[in-house]
Amino acid sequence: MKKLFTSILTVVLLFSMVGSVFAESKKVNYEYSTALVKAVQLDEKFVGAVGVDGEFLFLDQQKAIENGISTDKIKEAKEKIKDYNKITKDALEITPLLTFVGNQIQFDEIEAEEKGVSKELINATKSDIEKINKASEGIFSIAACDGSNKYVDRWYGYDTYFDSCNANKLIGYLTIGAGITTIAAAITAFIAPPVGLAVGIAAGLIGIGAGALTVANANGCGILIRWSFDKPIWTGSQC
User: Fold this and answer.
1) Of the ranges 12-21, 159-168, 180-189, which is most confident?
2) Is 151 helix (H, G, I), strand (E, B) or coil?
3) Counting C-beta atoms within 10 Å of the first and last residue's C-beta, which end of the chain has fewer, N or C?
C-alpha cells in the first residue's frame, strides 16, 4: 500500500457511503474495520480501532492502546491513515468535475481552477485523462452491455461485479498504466463500494492485471471478482 500512497494522483475516487453502517459520524463497525485495516495495510490488532468519520478514516487511539499496540505503531498507523485521507480529500475535489461518456472521460478544468483545486492535481488529472481518451479513440461502445455492476458483501469479504462494457474500460485503464486513483474513480462510478474500499479494490485489480481480466471477460458477459477483503481470491466470468 505504500506504493499506492506514493503513486501520482491522477483522476480521482469518491468514497461512496453505503448502508446504515456509515449513518453516524465517527463510527467503528467491526466488520468494516477489518476491511479498512487491511486496505491501509495495518496490523490486525488495529481492527476495532479504525473506523469512518464521514468520508474519512479515523483511528481511535484509546482503543488501539487497549488492543496492546505500541506508541510507535500507533504513530505509524496515523501517518498511513493521513495519507489515505489525503487521497480521499483530492477525490472529493475532483470527482464532481468528471463525466464518463462512453469510453471517454471529460474533466472540467475551468471549474476545477475556480474551485481552487491545486495545479498539481489538475495537471495530474489532465495527464491521465488524455492517455485514456487517446487510447480509446476509434473504439466504439457496443450497444448492449451484458452482466451486472454491483458490490455484494459476503462472509469471506465481498464480491465485485462489472458488466462487459465496464470490464473492458477497466482493462483499457490497466493496459495504458493509468494511475491508482483513475481506476478507483471508475470503480466508484461503476459499483459504488463502501467508504474506504475503492482504493483497495483498485490496487487489487492492478495486481490481477489486464491479461487475467481480459480472459475473464472473453465470453462477453462481464466479470466477477471475489475478495477476502483487499485480496482478490477468484476472478472469472459472470456467465
Assistant:
1) 159-168
2) strand
3) C
Dist. CA 31–CA 33, nearest whole Å? 5
Evaluate the CA torsion angle 220, 209, 157, 5 in order and state its sign.
Answer: negative
Per the structure block, which three cell numbers stand in for 198? 475503492
Cα–Cα distance, 108 to 203 (Å, whole number): 26
d(CA 206, CA 42): 20
Give the whole-angstrom CA distance, residue 227 versus residue 175: 22
Q: How many angstroms separate the Cα of 177 from the Cα of each of 38, 61, 129, 204?
A: 24, 37, 12, 14
Nearest-angstrom CA–CA distance, 68 and 62: 10
Distance CA 199, CA 204 (A): 9
Residue 161 has pLDDT above 90, yes or no: yes
The confidence score (pLDDT) of residue 115 equals 93
- For residue range 59-79, what is the model confidence (pLDDT) as tens digits? 999 999 999 999 999 999 999
Say how far apart CA 127 and CA 201 lie, in whole Å: 22
Cell of 142: 457496443
Give the three-class secondary structure for 236.
strand
Cα dihedral 61, 67, 70, 73 sign: negative
